[in-house]
């Protein structure tokens, strides 16, 4: 099997509920390197959202269609990232006992707990609500960034996962998160960034070709904003947990999608 093809399948297997099977043994190195193709998985999810909107929009009111789109986004990855967000928020909310090392270990143990606390539940509800309201705003009246947002939202979220893992260190010495975090190198960053840039170009060609110069400026600002956000998150999680875990990376993905949609709204109100 072609090595890149194998890594692509691993990325889809990890980030979606699609029942893909990878033949042969999978090494930790291959698992880590599959992160280079996370934006490709995001492109699949984005294309699925655009297609679903086209079909559902002919059958249901706009509000209901946007609700289905948020649900579809959750279903495509089985709520994996939302679970990580909830666990991360519960751990952050834990009160400090005064000792940094003991606080970190207690927060890490909270993250591994299968139950979700009240802060985690609130985080999930607010995340879903903000996504729905943001998409609903962009579709009333139908603004041209709407389709671009549906397509790019999961792509950028997957890219920020790669950036965060590249700059972070694992908080635990075991687990799948450690394999990904230690496996992301310069090559994975370059490939994932090229895939992201390709998605930017594709959105201009297929959705709004007449706005190429304005969008190029927006994309440059967006890329800078998201990169800085990743660095802030990594620094914060290192302080709270001693590094990153799979849950914190999932939290970055969920928060990124919200920040992206809010950024699109601000840009739309100011420049369109």
Question: Strands, helices and their partners?
Answer:
Blueprint (H helix, E strand, L loop, with lengths): L2 H13 L12 H6 L4 H19 L5 H15 L3 H14 L6 H13 L5 H21 L6 H23 L8 H8 L2 H21 L5 H30 L4 H26 L1
Helix pairs in contact: 3-4, 3-8, 3-10, 4-7, 5-6, 5-7, 5-12, 7-12, 8-9, 8-10, 8-11, 8-12, 11-12
Distance between the termini: 47 Å
Q: Report Rg.
A: 19 Å
Profile the largest sheet: none
Number of domains: 1
User: What fraction, in percent, of the residue positions are helical?
Assistant: over 70%
Number of helices: 12
SS strand fraction: under 5%
Order of helices and strands: HHHHHHHHHHHH
* Mean model confidence by pLDDT: 88
Structural class: mainly alpha
Low-confidence stretches: none
What quaternary form is this?
Answer: single chain
Number of strand elements: 0
What features would you highlight for this structure?
globular; mainly alpha; 272 residues
Quick gist of this model?
This protein is an all-alpha fold. 77% of the residues lie in helices and 0% in strands.
Description of the structure:
The protein is mainly α and 272 residues long. It has one domain. 77% of the residues lie in helices and 0% in strands. The protein is built from 12 helices and no strands. It has helices at residues 3-15, 28-33, 38-56, 62-76, 80-93, 100-112, 118-138, 145-167, 176-183, 186-206, 212-241, 246-271. The longest helix is centred in the last third of the chain and has 30 residues, at 212-241. It is globular.
């Amino acid at each position: 099997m072609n090595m890149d093809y194998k890594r692509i399948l691993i990325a889809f297997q990890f980030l979606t509920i699609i029942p893909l099977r990878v033949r042969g043994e999978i090494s930790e190195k291959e698992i880590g390197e599959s992160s280079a193709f996370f934006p490709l998985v995001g492109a699949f999810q984005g294309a699925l959202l655009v297609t679903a909107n086209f079909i559902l929009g002919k059958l249901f009111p706009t509000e209901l269609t946007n609700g289905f789109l948020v649900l579809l986004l959750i279903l495509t990855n089985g709520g994996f990232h939302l679970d990580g967000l909830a666990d991360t928020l519960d751990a952050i909310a834990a009160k400090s006992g005064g000792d940094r090392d003991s606080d970190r270990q207690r927060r890490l143990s909270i993250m591994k707990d299968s139950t979700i606390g009240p802060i985690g539940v609130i985080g999930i509800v607010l995340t879903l609500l903000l996504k729905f309201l943001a998409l609903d705003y962009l579709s009333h009246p139908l603004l041209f960034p709407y389709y671009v947002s549906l397509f790019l939202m999961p792509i950028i979220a997957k890219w920020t996962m790669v950036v965060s893992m590249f700059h972070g260190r694992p908080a635990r010495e075991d687990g799948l998160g450690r394999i990904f975090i230690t496996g992301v190198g310069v090559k994975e960053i370059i490939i994932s960034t090229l895939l992201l840039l390709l998605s930017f170009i594709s959105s201009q060609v297929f959705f709004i070709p007449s706005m190429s110069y304005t969008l190029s400026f927006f994309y440059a600002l967006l890329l800078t904003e998201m990169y800085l956000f990743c660095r802030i998150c990594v620094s914060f999680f290192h302080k709270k947990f001693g590094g990153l875990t799979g849950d914190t990376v999932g939290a970055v993905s969920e928060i990124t999608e919200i920040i992206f949609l809010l950024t699109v709204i601000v840009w739309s109100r100011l420049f369109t």
